[in-house]
Amino acid sequence: MRIVVKIGTSTLAHAAGRLNIRRVEGLVKVLSDLKNQGEQLILVSSGAIGMGVGKLNLPGRPADMPTKQAAAAVGQCELMYTYDKLFGEYNHTVAQLLLTGEDVRFPHRRQNFVNAMERLLELGVLPVVNENDAVATDEVGEATTIGENDTLAAIVAECVGADLLVLLSDIDGLYTADPHRSADAALIPEVGEITAELRALAGDPGSALGTGGMATKLKAADIAMACGCDMVIANGQRPELLYDIAAGLPVGTRFLGRRKGA
Ligand code: GLU
Questions:
Q1: Which residue, by CA, sits nearest to atom 6 of ligand 1?
Q2: Which of 55, 79, 148 maximizes ligand 1 atoms within 8 Å of its Cβ, making it the mutation to test the pocket?
């Protein structure tokens, strides 16, 4: 199977932006094992800005664009250093691909990205993708910027024809209400179609450093489902869940990709 796994900042880093070592080590171990099992993996990793904030000892997520760019440039190095070191312990080779909206908007540039990805996968490499936040400076919603990694991960899944997209978040899945606020919020195990009611459930982002939230996850699900790729939202605090997710067992919320011809 070809699996795209997206890891959010809140999964990778502590609240102040320093690396959550135990969490990341656990994740890398499971991902390495899945690769040893024969799965093709692609990682879409956030955390550049968050880790840059930690490394530069900034008081919080930068409000101004140049500091955001600087934090991303510093943090992306830290991120890849960490992945290279940890995956290297399991004999896996990582590659860094930094994209902007332009790289996937124009067909010839998208094809170049796909060519690089396919070749990396053939070579047994684990591609690690992020938005190029040091140069992608438009505000969220502008065409030249993707803006957040839920959508980026879905675009990557679409580009490479992935079988499965997993969004690892700080929440177990999609709930019938905000579980932080409502005691009787229930997890929705499976979604075959994204209804207007479902969209109304999408709340705010949960962390101060990341930019995601349920709304962006539904946007990602729209893209994934349309190209026949299942998408699962699961809790990144428990990386071993990835074994069950890859085996098709019920974990978190699974959005069913539309079967071809259906
Ligand atoms: N590209 C951003 C980063 O690495 C993350 C975007 C997101 O949180 O979705 O910090």
A1: 148
A2: 148
Q: What's the 19 CA to ligand 1 centre distance in angstroms?
A: 15
Residue 165 bridge partners (DSSP): 4, 231
Distance from residue 201's CA to the centre of ligand 1 (Å): 23
Virtual CA dihedral for 81, 29, 2, 136, nearest 10 degrees? -30
Residues 23-61 pLDDT 10s: 999 999 999 999 999 999 999 999 999 999 999 999 988
Q: Is the CB of 76 under 6 A from ligand 1?
A: no
pTM above 0.90, yes or no: yes
Which atom of ligand 1 has the smallest separation from the CA of 133?
1
Residue 50, ligand 1, Cβ within 6 A: yes
pLDDT tens-place string over residues 200-255 = 777 544 444 444 478 899 999 999 999 999 999 999 999 999 999 999 999 999 99
The residue to mutate among 65, 170, 211, having the most atoms of ligand 1 within 8 angstroms of its beta carbon, is 211
Ligand 1 centroid to 72 CA: how many Å? 9
